[in-house]
Design goal:
Elements: E1 9-13, H1 20-33, E2 40-44, H2 50-57, E3 62-66, H3 83-89, E4 93-96, H4 99-104, H5 109-122, E5 125-130, H6 134-138, H7 142-153, E6 165-169, H8 183-201, H9 203-208, E7 211-214, H10 222-226, E8 233-236, H11 243-253
Parallel strand pairs: 1-2, 1-8, 2-3, 3-4, 4-5, 5-6, 6-7, 7-8
The structure holds 2-phosphoglycolic acid.
């Protein structure tokens, strides 16, 4: 109903896949495949492929993002990348709070919040990921958990900055498992997230915020998922590595 108030965004999350050479090949296939997109198209690549991605996509409708960012501006943080470093390259988007970062790299709601703020303050657009694991779903706490993750991630984010923020609802049990949430499950949680945004920022901001679904979204199930009223596109892992599949998902979100 309010879908025309916000942008549908299909973002690829390449994770730890593709060398820069392989990235160049994939982008060469993607450019013609998504050139007529009616939605925003983003590819989030490993840090090592960002320069290649930015050069290749110049003058196209593909936007480039990173998969993580550190919260400090600079300093003794061996191996980390700051928001300013990304902005200086020309990177536009960044993902924060992906469940793999939370699970394998000890990220917490608090550090997700700090990374989100640092990225927004540097001028990046941020895709913040939230989502429950299987135990939490079975315990019936999905909505409470996602509400909490969302509220903590957004601490200190202003209503104006919400124009540069996307939320990706990614149930952990659906990521990389081939087990997708049903369209109704995705809709239910995306609507609950929009309700939290309305409580925090008012209905106008909530209606204008893009909320994606992510977790085994593919060329077959994308159409039903993105047709739901509160699902404004997707964050795509595995299927983003195949140009044809990614283009099919982009086309579904363009309708
Ligand atoms: P998947 O990953 O599409 O491979 O399940 C989604 C994600 O982790 O963002």
């Amino acid at each position: 109903m309010n879908k025309n108030l916000r942008k549908a965004v299909i973002a690829g999350n390449w994770k730890m896949n593709k060398t820069a050479t392989q990235a160049a090949q994939l982008i060469d296939e993607l450019i013609p495949a998504v050139k007529d997109a009616g939605c925003e198209v983003v590819i989030c690549t490993p840090f090592t492929s960002l320069v290649t991605a930015l050069e290749k996509t110049k003058g196209t409708n593909i936007h480039v993002g990173a998969e993580n960012v550190h919260f400090e501006a600079s300093g003794a943080y061996t191996g980390e990348i700051s928001a300013d470093m990304l902005v200086d390259l020309g990177v536009e988007y960044v993902i924060t709070g992906h469940s793999e970062r939370r699970q394998y790299f000890a990220e917490t709601d608090e550090t997700v919040n700090k990374r989100t703020l640092a990225a927004l303050n540097a001028g990046l657009k941020v895709i913040v990921c939230v989502g429950e694991n299987l135990t939490q779903r079975e315990q019936g706490v999905t909505e409470e958990l996602v509400r909490m993750q969302t509220k903590i991630a957004l601490q200190g984010v202003t209503a104006e900055q919400m124009a540069n923020l996307i939320i990706a609802y990614e149930p952990v049990w659906a990521i990389g498992t081939g087990r997708t949430a049903t369209a109704d499950q995705a809709q239910e949680v995306c609507a609950a997230i929009r309700k939290v945004l309305a409580e925090l920022y008012g209905q106008a901001v909530a209606d204008a915020t893009t909320i994606q679904y992510g977790g085994s979204m593919n060329a077959k199930n994308c159409e039903e998922l993105v047709s739901k009223p509160d699902v404004d596109g997707g964050l795509i892992g595995g299927a983003a590595l195949k140009a044809g599949d990614f283009a099919t998902i982009v086309a579904a979100a363009s309708k």
